[in-house]
Design goal:
This protein is α+β, with helices and mostly antiparallel strands and about 170 residues long. The protein is about 15% helix and about 25% strand. Strands 1-8-7-5-6 form a 5-stranded antiparallel β-sheet, covered by helices on one side. Strands 2-3-4 form a 3-stranded antiparallel β-sheet. The longest helix is centred in the first third of the chain and has 10 residues.
Length: about 170
């Protein structure tokens, strides 16, 4: 049985952003806006309802606590409190239909392997990556939107949903 654990951005960090309107790791202002794209929200790992939901954009380093070498990128969460994703042994249902790239990283954040699974191949792709003993964790990216890190100006000027990483998947023994 494949064991994995899907981790969204921590509820504590999301609450800090909502209450301070700043990126907790960096102090940059967070940007509030109506959802112009589907996201996803990095807390509940659901897609935004374009034009209906409101969201916050802020700078986040997904490697905090994993590796000292930071790679900050822009991410979105719902502006108001949402239910943090807690079905951690399940791949988030609302991410399944997106164009996904799984990046497997190992010690000292060394990039080891990549998979681009379709919906029906997601669990098998996770298993293939974790079958490699050098892979410690997987970052899930949106294939079409994982572009070069935009500048802060771009993030707040309609850059849409350019975001770095949707969630992390970790081994679970
Ligand atoms: Zn949410």
């Amino acid at each position: 049985m494949l064991g994995f654990k899907v981790l969204p951005v921590s509820p504590e960090l999301c609450e800090q952003v909502r209450s301070s309107l700043k990126a907790p790791q960096y102090g940059h202002p967070a940007h509030a806006e109506p959802a112009a794209g589907y996201g996803p929200c990095r807390s509940c790992l659901r897609q935004f309802h374009v034009g209906c939901d409101r969201r916050l954009l802020f700078t986040y380093n997904p490697f905090a606590g994993i590796d000292p070498y930071p790679s900050p990128g822009p991410i979105f969460i719902h502006e108001n409190a949402c239910q943090p994703f807690d079905q951690v042994s399940t791949f988030p249902p609302e991410l399944r239909s997106l164009p996904l790239t799984f990046e497997g990283y190992g010690l000292e954040r060394w990039f080891v392997a990549r998979e681009r699974p379709t919906d029906s191949d997601i669990e098998a792709a996770i298993a293939r990556l974790f079958a490699n003993p050098d892979v410690d964790y997987i970052h899930v990216r949106n294939t079409r939107r994982a572009v070069l890190w935009p500048t802060l100006h771009d993030w707040t000027q309609g850059a849409g949903d350019r975001h770095s990483i949707s969630c992390g998947i970790f081994r679970c023994d």
